[in-house]
Amino acid sequence: MNAQNQAFIKKVNTALVLRSFWLNPENTRTNIASELGLDKSTIVLIINRLLKKGIIKETEKTHSTPLGGRKAQQLALVNNYAAVLGLEIQPAYYKYVVLNLKGEILLKGTEKCHYSDNFTDLITNIITEMDNPLSKLNIPLLGISIGTPGWIDTNRFKILNSHLFHLDYYDFAKEILPQFDIPILIENDANCCAWGELLLFPNKRLKHFIYILGEFHEEKQIEGQCLIGIGMGIVADGAVYYGENYSAGEFKSVFWSNERISQFGMDDQMILDVKKNPQILHQIIEELLLNLSPITAIFNPEQIFIGGDLKEFQSEIKEILNGKFKDRFIGLSQNASKIIPSTLDEHDVAVGAAAMFLEKLFAVPQLNENPFQAAMNWDPIFQNIHTIKKTGKKSFSLLQKTC
Length: 403
Hints:
With about 400 residues, this protein is of the alpha/beta class. It has helices spanning about 5-25, 30-35, 40-55, 120-130, 130-135, 170-175, 190-200, 270, 280-300, 315-320, 350-360, 380-390, and strands spanning about 25, 55-60, 75, 85-90, 95-100, 105-110, 140-150, 150-155, 160, 165-170, 185-190, 210-220, 225-235, 240, 305-310, 340. Helix 2 crosses helix 3 (about 40-55), helix 7 packs across helix 11 and helix 9 (about 280-300) crosses helix 10 (about 315-320). The longest helix has 22 residues, at about 280-300. It is globular, with a radius of gyration of 23 Å.
């Protein structure tokens, strides 16, 4: 076996052990060896290295068996070993969430921003502004994940189209990644929410669901008027489904036509009053559900989550579903109990973005995998954390390139 193969196997085994700790809060060397089908000697070497790096720790010993014998040493992931920053970025504001390795929220907030048609400056300024709140946490930052509206090629870091930001084929990898010495991911906002529901609430064990993100977007021209944007995150077989060209979940009503600014078939001028006129909102929800009906009949999801600003209107949704649309949703009909509000709070996109980063962080490398989709390499991560802790700097500024 050559050195390259040995290095890959070592990388895979380390990732397997770390993922085991991520999925199981506490474990023992023997249980991990049995679970992963690896020699205990291999597990011991990996565990000793991870103990030295500080990402796992020894806890209390297990109870001995009725037959006696040596008590096993319990081990656990050090949840606050490092943190992940999730961002939701909109033209008028951004929301942020900091998660530890367990997915617990350490910090969250909302700030105003101003978009002046320079997306690179917007992203760079927001990340730089985060230096202040991050510096107050006594935890090193592992990476950043950004959720934003648009048609996004997540693996190649391209924004193929974003109506809100007036972007076509924006090369995030070229414009943003070289500026910072830290992993940064970008994802569609609705897909972020789907990742959040999938990863932060594993006890649900849902493998097939749809997340509908509905958000009001203020129009600059007339105060008080807005459009409503709809995005869908689709989870199939336990993973977010992107489709052939990453456009899965990009919603346009079957009643839509080219002259419409919105995603619906209704007159744009009517939709602009959606926040002020309950009847218009009711019509929009009806049109959305009409479009959703054939999708659920074909896909047959276990659940549909309603998030974003639409989450506030669950009573209207239930009224329509239990009334004239009662028989339209095959497998989700009766009392519409499976079309429910999102488990995530108002920071749903930011939380989901950070959760997606954790999934990629604890993914297991695969042979011949696409370099854009490759699991993260823990060796440079350990080195970055060591550097941060050695210098005593916990803020993001350490990781921003000065050249």
